[in-house]
Prior knowledge:
Chain A is mostly helical. Chain A contains 14 helices and no strands. The radius of gyration of chain A is 23 Å and the shape is globular.
Amino acid sequence: MARSVSPRRKLINTTAAWAIGLLIFFPILWTILTSFKTEAQAIAAPPIFLGFDWTLENYRVVLERSDYARFLWNSIIIAGLSTVLGCLIAIPAAWSMAFVPSKRTKDILLWMLSTKMLPAVGVLYPIYLLFIQLGLLDSRAGLVVVLMLINLPIIVWMLYTYFKEIPGEILEAARMDGATLGQELLYVLTPMAIPGIASTLLLNFILAWNEAFWTLNLTAVNAAPLTAFIASYSSPEGLFFAKLSAASTMAIAPILILGWFSQKQLVRGLTFGAVK
Amino acid sequence: MGQIQLKQVTKSFGDVQVIPPLDLTIQDGEFTVFVGPSGCGKSTLLRLIAGLEDISSGHIEIDGKDATALVPAKRGLAMVFQSYALYPHMSVRKNIAFPLRMAKMDQAEIDRRVNAAAEVLNLAAYIDRRPGQLSGGQRQRVAIGRAIVREPSAFLFDEPLSNLDAALRVGMRMEISELHKKLATTMVYVTHDQVEAMTMADKIVVLQAGVIEQVGSPLELYRKPRNKFVAGFIGSPKMNFVEGEYAAQHGGHTIGVRPEHIDVVESGGIWQGTVGVAEHLGSDTFFHIHNTGLTDTITVRAIGDVNLRHGDTIHLNPRINEMHKFDAQGLRID
C-alpha cells in the first residue's frame, strides 16, 4: 500500500527541502551576487542582498589583470587527465577485486580508503622534496600524477561497487566466446558499466577541479589552475571581496554548468544498484 | 568430434573437496545429462569441463587431447548459462555474432552464420532487438544461437530451462532435443530435474556429493538403479521404500516399489491403508496412503480417475516381480 501524505505534511516537507537546499546553495549565491557589487557595497554593513548597483566592473578588472584562459586550460588539463588516467588504472583494478576476489580484497579496499584519512599536509614535505628531485614543481604532469593518486582510492571504490552489480556469468560467457581479458573489459564490462563509469569520471573531475591544497602548494605560474587564480585575489593587504568573488564565480562556473547538465547521470550513477 | 574424458579429476575449494577423484567418458555425439540434488557438484563438474574453474588434480581430455591447461575459449566448447548471460548492451544479432567476431572471422561469413542460426531458432523477427526486449524463451534461444554459430565440438548447458515457466520448459526441452538430433553434436546438460534428465538424455550421470552414483541410459537407471539413492531420485513420484519384516520376507533390508507398480484393487489386497491426499490429474490419480503398517506414506499411481476420497480404505497389490531389493548399505541385490 502506498503511504498517504496529507497536503499539510507535503507543504511542510516541501518547504523544509527548499530551505535546506537554499541554505546549502547560499554561499555560492552570495559569492555570485557579491561579484556584481562594487568593493564598497561588498563589505557594507548591514549587507545588501539585491538592492545594489549591478556592475561588471569586477569581471573586467579580473580579466584584465589575469590570464583567465591559461588558468582555465590548466584546470581542464589537470582535472581531465588525472581522471582519465585514474580510470585506466582503476577499471582493471576494480575488475579484479569484483570478479576474482582474494581473501585480502576487502583489506586492500579498506587500506586504500585509509590513505584518504591521512591529512594531506602530513605528506606535503616528502612529496615536495620528490617534486624538486624529479623537476616536477610547477608542472602539469606532476599535478596530474598527484591528483590521480589521491583520487584513485575513490575511483576504485566506486567502480568496484558498480562492477559488483554485473553478473559474473556474463563475463564467463564472454570468456567461453573467446574474448581475451582485454576484449572482455573493452567489449563487455565497460559498456555495461557505462552509467557507473560516467558518474565516477564526473565526480572525480569535480574533485580534481576543486582540489586546492596540492594545486596551490605545488604550482606557481606555469601549471597554476583556477584554484590558484582565486587564491591570487585573496590578498591580506587589501579588501577586494568583490574581485575575489568575481574570480571565484569564474572558477566554479565551468564545473557548475557541467554538473547542472549531468546531474541526472550523476544521481543515477551514485544510486546505481540501490534500485534495480 | 566431441569426446570428453575426465581422468581422476578432483576439485577442492580451500580445504573442502567437492569432487573426489572422478572418471567419466562422454562419447562423441552423446546427449549426457548430469543430474542430482542441489549442491551435488554437477554444475561444478560442468564448469571444470568448460575451463571456468581449474581442476585441483587429474586430467581433462577433449577429442583425445589434453585440455587440462587450456583456457575456456581454446577448448572448442560452447556454453549456455542458466541466466542466459546475454550481453544486454548488444542486439540479438551482435550477441550471436560475438564469438565469431572474437574469432576474427570475416564479415560475410559472420552474417551467413548468424542468419542461419536465427533461421533455425526462429529469431529472425527479433534480430535487431536487445535482450531486455525479449521474453525468457526468446532469450534462451539467443543464448543457444550464440552457442551454435561457433560450431563447437560440444555444447554445455547449465540448467538452461530453470528460469522458464512450466509450459515453455516443455517446449524448449523438445527444441533442444531436436537440435541435438539435427546437429548430432555432443551435449552435456546439467539439471536437478529428473524429468528433464529422463526425457532428453542418451546417458544420465547421477551425482551425489561430487560422487557418481550411477551412469546409464534413462531406462537402465529406471529399471536397475544401483542403489537406494538412484532409485529414489529417478522416477516421479518417488519410489516407495519399505523396511522391516515385509522387506525381510522378500530377502532384502529394504524393498523399493514404484507407485506405478502397485495396483489398486477392490478388496483383499496384500496391503491396505487409508487415503490421505489424493491428487487427481485426470489421466492419473496419485494416492498418498497412510496407516499401512509398513512406512509413513505409500504413494500409488492409479490410471484414470479412481473414485476414492480422503479417509477411505484402499486395498493394494504390489507387483512382486517389479520390486527392487537393497541391502543394509543401500546397494541393489539382484
